[in-house]
Structure formats: C-alpha cells, structure tokens
Write a structure and sequence with these properties.
heterodimer; A: 69 residues; elongated; B: 310 residues; mainly alpha; Tetracycline Repressor, domain 2; 2 domains; 14 helices
Chain lengths: 69, 310
C-alpha cells in the first residue's frame, strides 16, 4: 500500500514535470460548486449540532439543574 | 510517454459540479412535503402531544428518512428515469450527479434519520422509519416496480406508513387511529398512480415498467380505479365514524369522497380521445386534493385540540 502511494506520488510529480503546472486545477464551475457544497455541509452540521444540543436540554428537562456539585 | 497521462481522458479524476440544489432534488421535495404533512397528522393524534421541539425534530428526521428513500430510489432507477420525459431531468440522468454520490448520500441520510429519530423520540418510531425506508427502496424500488403491475398496490405501504411513524414518535406505540390513516393512504395510492399511468402509459412501456394499463389494459385500469375509489370514499369517513375526528371532518370527507367517486366514474365511462385524457388528469389532480384536504382537516382540528390543552 505504501508502495502504491509512493507510485501515485511519483506519477503526480511526473505530471507536474511534464506539464509544468500544479496538477489538478479546478475550473471556475468546479470550484464554485465545491464551495457551495462545502458551505451546505458546514451549515447542515452546525444546525444538527444546535438541534441535538437543544433536544438534549429538553429531554433532560428541569433535572438538568438538579445535580451534585 | 510519461506516466502522467493517468490524469487524462477516462483515468482523469472526476470532479463533481453538482450544486447543493442537485442533492436537494434527490430528496424528492414534493413527496417529502406530503410525508411531513401526513406524519404531522399522526403525531397530532397523540393524546398528549410531545414538546414542540421534540415534535419538530421528529418530523425533520421523518422528512430526511423520506428524502433518503427518494435518493436511493433515484440511484437505483437512474436507467429508467433517463427514458421518461417526466424523470429525465433528475440529477443523475441529466448528468449533474454521479450514481455513487447519490447512493452514498442516500445511505448516510437513511442512517442519520433513523438514529436521530431513535434519540429524539423513541426506538419504536425509529424502527418503523427504518422499515419504511427498507420497504420503499428494497421491496418497492428494487423488487416490485419492475416485476409486477401490482407494484403500486403493495409498494404504496411505504408511502402510507408516515402517519404511524408520527404517532409512534409521539407515543412510543401504534393505535387504531394511526392504522386508519395508514389505510386511507394505502387505498388512495393505486387509483392516484393508475390515473397518472393512463396518461403516461407509453413512457412506462418504453421504460419497461409494468404498470397496470400496459399489462392488463386501460379498461381494466379504469375499473380498478373506480373500485378503489368506491373503497376509499367510506374509508375516508372512518376517522369521524371511529370518533377521532369531528363532525366537520365527517362532512368534508363525505363531500370529497362523493366527488372522488364521481371523478373515478368519469374515468371509467370516458374511454376515447382527448376527453378520456382530461378525465384521467382530473382524477389524478383531484386525488391529490382529496388526500390534502382530509389530512388538512385532521391537522387543523387536532392543532386546535392541542391549543385547547395548553
């Protein structure tokens, strides 16, 4: 597996040498859609965190402040 | 030649240009809204309604579960979706999203929705939601849909389960009222989809989906639509007769039930030309209105009941 990864790294280096570029370059459309997807995933995870936190508080109810310190 | 050629042509990395809206389309938002609506009716039937936040989170989990079913359905049916005008603009056949992404998206959402509902509400509701997703994806989509013209009859159970899931989310059990709501949607589904199939029978035929008009003929389909409408009309009144809906609901369900049977009778009698297509289209659209009005009446009066309890 390590050898495969090394080979892949060599191939990428070959590509850079051959084309003089940085490898995979996203088009404007690809970059825009990736950014949109990242924002959507981030917003969804944030909302889920808030939802789970709020639901946990509700499920605990008044007992949440009744604890030994 | 350099090994760098692996980055080109068919070996080049596929970089998605799918927008969040494409993933949202995978969820079948219109179906999802119907699921939320019917699940809400089931949830509000509970003798003691849940905390609003618990109710909201439960409905959200049910909606996401329905969306996951839609995504997995679109993943599996991408080949036949590409053959029908009604479905060929969906994200996968349109080429905006690759099938593997849709599969991963659907599986993740299915697991997330079931475990969320289990945590937020209870594991009875979560089990029912898991069964609903399994039934829709495996029993209906993978097995029945391409095999038998009765696909819609049996597969309709998946679309009928949300009121039971909603009720179970609020109470941890199922009762007769939630089973009656299940039965209404279950009996409503075949005449609704067969009306559509009468309009789109050529497309279903081209795609190789054995809908009733293609297999048993249009006359048999018209008869089945009428029989199901005759069964549905009294069943729609059952919530009032069984005492968990008001007289107002009873009057509404009787009126709309008569209109539904009239629309089905028009489909049965009118068999030729444009008039036949108009009758089928009316039946299709009116069946949507029928179900919407019945569940709206239930939701409105149950909401009023909940506010009266506060």
């Amino acid at each position: 597996m390590v050898k495969d990864m090394t080979d892949a790294g060599d191939k990428l280096k070959d590509h850079r040498d051959a084309f003089g570029g940085p490898g995979v370059v996203l088009t404007k459309e690809q970059a825009r859609s990736r950014r949109q997807r990242n924002i959507a995933i981030g917003a969804t995870i944030a909302l889920l965190a808030v939802l789970f936190y709020a639901v946990t508080i509700v499920k605990f109810g008044a007992a949440i402040i009744n604890r030994t310190i | 030649m350099s090994d760098a050629s692996y980055l080109h042509d068919e070996q080049a990395p596929r970089i998605s240009v799918a927008a969040p809206s494409d993933y949202f389309a995978l969820l079948k938002p219109r179906v999802m809204s119907l699921v939320v609506f019917t699940a809400l009716a089931g949830l509000l039937l509970a003798p003691t309604p849940p905390h609003p936040l618990i109710g909201f989170a439960s409905l959200l989990a049910i909606a996401v579960g329905a969306g996951a079913s839609g995504a997995l359905n679109m993943w599996y049916d991408a080949d036949i979706d590409a053959l029908m005008t009604r479905t060929r603009k969906r994200p996968i056949p349109a080429g905006r999203l690759d099938p593997e992404s849709a599969l991963a998206f659907g599986l993740v959402l299915a697991a997330l929705s079931v475990f969320t509902l289990g945590y937020v509400a209870n594991w009875v509701a979560a089990s029912l939601l898991a069964f609903t997703i399994f039934f829709y994806v495996v029993i209906y989509t993978m097995w029945l849909k391409r095999w038998t013209p009765m696909n819609i009859v049996i597969g309709g159970a998946a679309g009928a389960l949300p009121p039971m899931v909603g009720y179970a989310a609020a109470t941890g059990e199922i009762n007769l009222a939630s089973v009656v709501l299940f039965a209404i949607i279950f009996i409503w589904t075949p005449p609704h989809f067969w009306s559509l199939a009468l309009l789109k029978s050529e497309e279903y035929g081209c795609a190789g989906v054995p809908m009733l008009p293609n297999v048993a003929g249009e006359d048999r389909t018209r008869l089945e639509i009428l029989i199901y409408a005759l069964a549905l009309a009294p069943l729609g009144v059952a919530p009032w007769l069984l005492g968990f809906a008001s007289l107002a609901y009873g009057v509404i369900s009787i009126g709309f039930g008569i209109a539904l049977v009239a629309a089905a009778a028009a489909v049965f009698k009118t068999r030729e030309g444009e008039a036949a297509r108009v009758a089928a289209r009316r039946m299709f659209l009116f069946s949507i209105l029928y179900l919407f009005v019945l569940f709206l009446a239930l939701v409105v009066e149950q909401t009023a009941h909940v506010f009266a309890l506060i």
